[in-house]
Design brief:
Blueprint: E1 5-9, H1 16-30, E2 37-41, H2 47-54, E3 60-63, H3 80-85, E4 90-93, H4 96-101, H5 106-118, E5 122-127, H6 131-135, H7 139-150, H8 156-159, E6 162-166, H9 180-197, H10 200-205, E7 207-211, H11 216-223, E8 230-233, H12 240-249
Parallel strand pairs: 1-2, 1-8, 2-3, 3-4, 4-5, 5-6, 6-7, 7-8
Bound molecules: 1,3-dihydroxyacetonephosphate.
Length: about 250
């Protein structure tokens, strides 16, 4: 049985006081929630405060990106060593918004992923097709390319620290959620690729999250699918009550 993992990707939202309010709210609602792994991923500037407030709550904090060098003349970048020095445990890598707006490729995703693992961070690696690719019947090709390219050269041991997030781009921020059957189909496909790249035990142990318009109302149905092991939540993680409801609805009887 894979433990579910629900992560909130705040993207570029929240000022300093708003960030404190949200993190305090999440702590109040979700501290000690052992049935699910809960991760909050605020913008870099709020990480230190989030770690401080959530200390001892069982809720982990993640970054939304990292650079592949540990230090150097790379203006504007943040390294894995910096993240871990603040008590950050997770990092999102290769989000579609980074692929779309910031030139992220499988190669750069792979470099960032290796840097994350080298620094002892757990990684959430995002993959997924856009609308034209889905409508053109290319979903499986694109997802396979993202998975293979992003995870190239990793060992089975490395994979123990990796979560995959399947995020169909057409479902992100659009209110158009993939049906649970559409999600399950791609998740099962990803697990099959992992089995071919690594082995069955690794494929069975790897958690695959779904992301794209996850809300309190659709979380339980999505999470009930055999190969859906959690969610990467955008819009609905910006309010403590909706993110809490998603976490609670993801495990029966919580
Ligand atoms: P939404 O939940 O706003 O669709 O965003 C999903 C996402 O991109 C999470 O990383």
């Amino acid at each position: 049985m894979r433990k579910k993992i629900i992560a909130g990707n705040w993207k570029m939202f929240k000022t300093a006081p708003e960030a404190v309010e949200l993190v305090e709210g999440l702590k109040k609602e979700l501290a000690g929630m052992n049935a699910v792994d809960v991760v909050v991923c605020p913008p870099f500037v709020h990480l230190s405060k989030a770690v401080e407030i959530l200390s001892g709550s069982g809720i982990a904090v993640g970054g939304q990106n990292l650079f592949w060098e540990d230090s150097g003349a790379f203006t504007g970048e943040i390294s894995g060593t910096m993240l871990t020095s603040y008590g950050v445990k997770y990092v999102i890598i290769g989000h579609s918004e980074r692929r779309q707006y910031f030139g992220e490729t499988n190669e750069t995703v792979n470099k960032r992923l290796r840097a994350a693992l080298k620094n002892g961070l757990k990684a959430i690696v995002c993959v997924g097709e856009n609308l034209a690719e889905r409508e053109g019947g290319k979903t499986f090709d694109v997802v396979q390319d993202h998975v293979k390219g992003s995870l190239a050269g990793l060992t089975k041991e490395d994979m123990l620290k990796v979560t995959i997030a399947y995020e169909p781009v057409w479902a992100i921020g659009t209110g158009k959620t993939a049906t649970s059957a559409q999600a399950q189909e791609v998740h099962a496909f990803i697990r099959d690729i992992l089995q071919k790249m690594f082995d069955k035990a690794t494929a069975d142990a790897t958690r695959i999250q779904y992301g794209g318009s996850v809300k309190p109302e659709n979380a339980a149905e999505l999470m009930s699918q055999k190969d859906v092991d959690g969610a990467l939540v955008g819009g609905a993680c910006l309010k403590a009550d909706s993110f809490t409801a998603i976490v609670k609805n993801s495990v029966p009887n919580s």
